[in-house]
């Protein structure tokens, strides 16, 4: 990789990875439960799951769900099966409705009933030893979701096309739960290490990676997520997801970095 680009990414990552980042980002929801792993995990999954579209709208809808509907007690709300009282047609966020929330909660109820935390489920399902831990975990969770919903699947909960999906939202939740620098991310998990994380690739991150010459592929898919993460591991082998702050920030909050010229 071009040395100047590597230095730009590291500088932007360290600038954006700061306490000031938290207030306007959905990471603030799991951070409200940092002393309770189960609550933080559920809040992370839900906040990340709603993370597509405008950040203000994402945070508004996550707040309505976690602080409002769940009364800031996501784990107890789920274990009490309060989700069964949610109207199937109530809109949670964009194309995610009450019926989709119930599908997800039924599966998570089964996981937490058997394992206590998603971290322990991740360890027990073998994700830590897999080549692609996030995708292995998604496959295991999808299996439980289907079992808890009489064999039905729902792509609005977790992607079903695991051979092609970039798995952006789960990779985002895992970054929050696994990274351990104590600044923005929570670092609550023990089953995975930061070195095993993958960059959450969306349109913004993919476009920035292309403008910087990190990738040439047009699709924002699993292969692209792997390729971008490999580039980030070349810069930060033990913590590649640190550079997510730079790729996200340059794409959303710091477009002037690109306008002022990409290092050659």
Structural notes for this entry:
The chain has 264 residues and is mainly α. It has one domain. It is 53% helix and 2% strand. The chain contains 13 helices and 2 strands, in the order αααααββαααααααα. The protein has helices spanning 3-16, 28-31, 37-49, 55-69, 74-79, 98-115, 118-124, 133-148, 168-178, 203-211, 222-235, 244-252, 256-259, and strands at 91-93, 96-97. A two-stranded antiparallel ribbon has the order 1-2. The N and C termini lie close together (11 Å).
Any key phrases for this structure?
264 residues, 53% helix, globular
Q: Provide the succession of SSEs.
A: HHHHHEEHHHHHHHH
Distance between the termini: 11 Å
Strand order of the largest sheet: 1-2
Q: What is the radius of gyration?
A: 18 Å
Give the number of domains: 1
Major sheet, described briefly? 2 strands, antiparallel
Molecular shape:
globular
Are there runs of 5+ residues with pLDDT below 50, and where? none
- In round numbers, the mean pLDDT is 95
E-strand count: 2
Helix content: 40-55%
Structural class: mainly alpha
Strand fraction: under 5%
Number of helices: 13
Summarize the topology.
Blueprint: H1 3-16, H2 28-31, H3 37-49, H4 55-69, H5 74-79, E1 91-93, E2 96-97, H6 98-115, H7 118-124, H8 133-148, H9 168-178, H10 203-211, H11 222-235, H12 244-252, H13 256-259
